[in-house]
Write a structure and sequence with these properties.
344 residues; Endonuclease III, domain 1; Nucleoside Triphosphate Pyrophosphohydrolase; 2 domains; 14 helices
């Protein structure tokens, strides 16, 4: 595996450094995100925040704005919180042990194993989606890899396979094999360095392992949002720091209740959220957007302010901003599509 990795490893920016902070940032960004998407964000992030201390001193709004478009914003919030803890508790040095890494917000078994092994060459295994696929095929594991029992077995296997003193390279090799050769569909078995010992290939089951859970249709939500104008400015508010899209700015609105028309729901939601009354002028755009566990149809309307002084009831901040200033705030992807419609 190590020889294969030396000859076939992709030249990725986070592989050119042993800086534990840079490796940490990369591993967080790579969670549930494609490599080609991550690369420009990685460069921009480290240019803006080249050290843990710089990240810890930054405002969360600044961090979220730089993260805008990567999604899964809890990663950015936790990275920011963890940087503060590293500065406060570890004198600005990323801890080296898996146990200490576990104490940082947002760091679980995979990320801890990645940092400990790759940055510090500790003999720590890691198991991500790519490694799961390789191990399930290599050992012909036919049970659901998401079950607790199988997860424990996978971690034991990953640990057993580690070459002492070369864990970092081996872990990267396993992930690289899963990402480039042992693909979910149509794996390139003919060039795999493990093809002669792969039990799934021996039994011609490489296309069916690991077992995939039956896909279910995503629940769909119908949402209305208001682009509220007053004296040439637009009203935006900031979500609470926790939960989905926490800390991001958005146009006020919310879910449509049973039996409500779009305009009735819109007026109610804006009143409940900010305590203001609006007049609905015209529809702006309808946006379809999918998250990991649900999808949303978002109906945006242009509105004018009628009465009331905005006061946050379900948000934490609000602003009246000029349309040209919207680009300075971090918005969810669905709201970005509304902003694009405003420019037309």
């Amino acid at each position: 595996m190590l020889e294969w990795f030396g000859e076939n490893a992709r030249d990725l920016p986070w592989r050119r450094t042993k800086n534990p902070y840079a490796i940490w940032v990369a591993e967080v960004m790579l969670q549930q995100t494609r490599v080609d998407t991550v690369e420009p964000y990685y460069h921009r992030f480290l240019t803006r925040f080249p050290t843990v201390g710089r990240l810890a001193r930054a405002r969360l709004d600044t961090v979220l704005k730089l993260w805008e478009g990567l999604g899964y914003y809890s990663r950015a919030r936790n990275l920011h919180l963890a940087a503060k803890k590293v500065v406060r508790d570890y004198d600005g040095n990323v801890p080296q042990t898996k146990l200490a890494l576990f104490s940082l917000p947002g760091i679980g078994p995979y990320t801890a194993g990645a940092i400990a092994s790759i940055a510090f060459n500790k003999n720590e295994p890691l198991v991500d989606g790519n490694v799961i696929r390789v191990l399930c095929r290599l050992f012909r594991i036919r049970e659901n890899p998401k079950s607790g029992k199988v997860q424990k077995r996978l971690w034991r296997l990953a640990e057993k396979l580690l070459p002492s003193g070369r864990a970092g390279l081996f872990n990267q090799a396993m992930m690289e094999l899963g990402a480039t050769v042992c693909l979910p569909r149509r794996p390139s078995c003919e060039v795999c360095p493990l093809r002669r010992i792969c039990s799934a290939k021996e039994h011609e089951e490489q296309e069916t392992l690991p077992r995939r859970a039956e896909s279910r249709p995503l629940p769909r939500l119908e949402v209305v949002v208001a682009v509220v104008y007053k004296n040439g400015r637009i009203l935006i508010d900031k979500r609470k720091p926790n939960g989905l899209l926490g800390g991001l700015w958005e146009f006020p609105g919310g879910k449509i209740e049973n039996g409500e028309s779009l305009t009735t729901a819109l007026k109610r939601e804006v009143r409940e959220e900010l305590g203001v009354a609006v007049r609905v002028k015209r529809p702006l755009v309808t946006v379809q957007h999918s998250y990991s566990h649900f999808s949303v149809t978002l109906h945006a309307f242009e509105c004018t302010h009628v009465s009331g002084t905005p006061r946050c009831r379900t948000c934490v901040d609000h602003r009246w901003v000029h349309p040209d200033q919207l680009k300075n705030f971090a918005f969810p992807a669905a709201n970005k599509k509304i902003i694009a419609a405003l420019r037309k």
